[in-house]
Amino acid sequence: MKEQSIELDHIKHIANFSSDYSSFGRDYVFSRLKPDTHPALNYESPWRFNGMTLVLALEGFKSIEVNLEMLEVSPASIISIHPDSIVRMGEIDWSHLEAYVLFMSRDFIRDINLDMNVINASVLMSHHKPVIKLSDKETELVRRYLELLHLNASEDEKSLYVKSIARNLVAALVYQIMEAVSKRKNETEEEPDSHSRSRRVSYVHDFMTLVNRHHGRERSVGFYADKLYISPKYLSLIIKESTGRSAAEWIDEYVILEAKNLLRFSGKNIQQIAYELNFTNQSSFGKYFKHLTGMSPSEFQRS
Fold it and tell me: CA of 233: how far to CAs of 222, 223, 237, 251, 269, in Å?
């Protein structure tokens, strides 16, 4: 079956079979699906979305395939699908389907401000687990965040405040999901496994902890490999296999999130921020930032 590549604009026809629907410019699309809302799509074919997808599956979802792995979905689960993942719908009971779906563009995701000082590195590393069963309280919190995003999208999308509200609501939602992952982390770690896998998990955890601590000064994979007493090539291999992203991508993720926070909230000028993040000059920082975000630091500050 041929894979379909879709973008945010392609998703907007989901309004035709949603009980609630909203779209906020090119940032996100919200949909609420209820029983007997059957989309006119070919769900036998795999698809790949170039942004982030979150699904609060309340009822009706039985399974979903993400990156060729078929995953069971229990009632009251959150499904997190990262950009460019290959997805195929599994078993769905359309007569009892109830779910909230949020599609977010890649640019919008990159513009979310997360405080790297409070993010638990080992929890962030667990991002590759797409399905998490939620408690009743967690389900209600996630549902309310999604409904607030839906209500927010009905406001003037050109308003600076409305877009900032959207960013902060999604940041809060991310923290909520991380809190849920954190509570279940010990259960996962205590599962019996081989010594080799346990060692790899340890490397990944230690790498993420080191990046959290040193990303403001060090951007070289070699620096982190030396700290772990392994080769850069081996570090890159285990990080990619364990998280789906390379070691360099994780380092860049931390640096860009920190840079965005400083640009938007610190009151410092671009040159000061460049030096704080250990760039040789403002120009090299600008090139790095634009390469990863598609806009210059000054353009980001004005957005």
Answer: 9, 12, 6, 15, 36
Using only C-alpha atoms, the chain has a radius of gyration, in whole angstroms, of 20
**Neighbouring residues of 90: CB distance < 8 A, sequence distance ≥ 6:** 62, 63, 64, 65, 70, 71, 73
**Whether the model pTM is above 0.70:** no
Q: Are the C-beta atoms of residues 155 and 169 closer than 8 Å to each other? A: no
Those residues whose C-beta lies under 8 Å from the C-beta of residue 120, and which sit 6 or more positions away, are: 178, 182
Location of structure tokens 């877009």:
163
Element at 123 (helix H, strand E): helix 121-125
Instruction: Please return the burial class of 237, using the count of CB atoms within 10 Å of its CB with bins 0-12, 13-18 and 19+.
Output: middle
Tokens standing for 85? 């993942």
Measured CA distances, 197 to 131, 132, 188 (Å): 21, 22, 13
Of 100, 102, 105, the residue nearest 84 (C-alpha): 105
**3-state secondary structure (DSSP) of residue 244:** coil
Lowest mean pLDDT of 35-39, 182-186, 220-224, 258-262, name the range: 35-39
Distance CA 166, CA 170 (A): 6
Sign of CA dihedral 50, 56, 61, 67: positive
Paired sense of beta strands 47-49 and 4-6, if any? parallel
Contacts made by residues 37-43, CB under 8 angstroms, sequence distance 24+: 37/94, 37/97, 38/94, 39/14, 40/16, 43/88, 43/89, 43/92
Mean pLDDT in the chain?
83
Per-residue pLDDT of 44-64, as tens digits, reads: 677 878 888 999 999 998 999
**20 bridge partner residues:** 32
CB 209: neighbour CB atoms within 10 A?
15
Beta bridge partners of 113: none
